Amino acid sequence: MIIVLLLQFNMSFYMTYLARWPDYFHVAEGPGNRIMGYIMGKVEGQGESWHGHVTAVTVAPEYRRQQLAKKLMNLLEDISDKIDKAYFVDLFVRASNTPAIKMYEKLGYVIYRRVLRYYSGEEDGLDMRKALSRDVEKKSIIPLKRPVTPDELEDGISESFSQGSTSIY
Question: What is the pTM of this model?
Answer without folding.
Answer: 0.85
